[in-house]
Amino acid sequence: MEHIKRILSFTRRALDDYQMIEAGDKIAVGVSAGKDSLTLLCAMAELRRFYPVPFELIAITIDMGFEGTDFTPIAKLCEELDVPYHIVPTEISRIIFDVRKEKNPCSLCAKMRRGALHNAAKELGCNTVALGHHFDDAVETFMLNLFFEGRIGCFSPVTYLSRVGIKLIRPMLYMPEKDVRYFASKVQLPVIKSPCPADGNTQREEMKQLLNQLDRKHDGLRYRIFGAMQRGEIDGFKEMAGMQGKKAYRNEEE
After folding, report:
1. What is the Cα–Cα distance from 241 to 158, expressed in whole angstroms?
2. How confident is the prediction for the chain on average, in pLDDT?
3. 111 versus 126: which is more confidently predicted?
4. Residues 106-133, buried b or exposed e (16+ Cβ, 10 A)?
5. CA-CA-CA-CA torsion for 108, 112, 118, 120, nearest 10 degrees?
6. Contact 42, 4 (CB under 8 A)
7. Is 52 helix (H, G, I), strand (E, B) or coil?
8. Model pTM score
9. Structurally, what CATH architecture does the domain formed by 5-252 represent?
10. 226 and 135 Cβ atoms separated by less than 8 Å
11. How confident is residue 166, by pLDDT bands cut at 50, 70 and 90?
């Protein structure tokens, strides 16, 4: 696929540095239909052809139950990539917005989506789930935890969920969002805009705008924050490659 070389470079480096894949892994890419997960799907599908550690690949979409959502373009992309595609229907949107009427729905929504994805992956015979979190997501998450929870922490590059027996990996950890955006635009990925009423009105969006403002004034700020996370070995982050893979895992219950 055209324009994919740079995407593959970032992805392969993260896979190598954190030894995210073991031979024979069956990996489910969590596909939300946004630019991040679709870019990850393309990268993993291409890497499957030549990556020295052999693995299987499928794609899973958790259908939140929003009326009128059509995943046909995603199914077509998966067919072109020769990746089996599974849509898991849920009533998450109804539960959150109609039944519980959550004023701050993001945390509960994320928890329910994660649970549905992990269970579906396990039922489909997968031992690994790949998520589309990128470089900017990592920096934003670190800063959100600092600002709003008063703690030093982030998601881990590799996490083992002992309760369900699933390994979570984040192969786009080194990839800046601008590269994801460029790739998605150039290859015209079938991105579906989120129908969620809370989309774009979250603490994460607020943090993204704050970091954009600070980065314009202090060039390279995001990279310095990310470097501090690596040097501090925050939640499994490492500054140097070549470490033993399982030492990068953070054991965590679902």
Report:
1. 14
2. 89
3. 126
4. beebeebbbebbbebbbeeebbbbbbbb
5. -170
6. yes
7. coil
8. 0.90
9. 3-Layer(aba) Sandwich (3.40)
10. yes
11. very high
Instruction: Please give the full DSSP string across 178-222, using - where no structure is assigned.
Output: HHHHHHHHHTT--------TTTT-SHHHHHHHHHHHHHHHSTTHH
Q: Are 57 and 85 in contact (CB under 8 A)?
A: no
Alpha-carbon gap, residue 32 to 18, rounded angstroms = 24
Domain-wise residue ranges, the chain: 5-252
In this structure, what is the dihedral angle of CA atoms 103, 62, 183, 27, given to the nearest 10 degrees? 130
Q: 247: pLDDT confidence band, cut at 50, 70 and 90?
A: very low
Torsion sign, CA atoms 153, 156, 160, 163: positive
Are 235 and 252 in contact, with CB atoms under 8 Å apart? no
36-89 pLDDT per residue, tens: 999 999 999 999 999 999 999 999 999 987 887 899 999 999 999 999 999 999
Residue percentage of the chain with pLDDT more than 90: 74
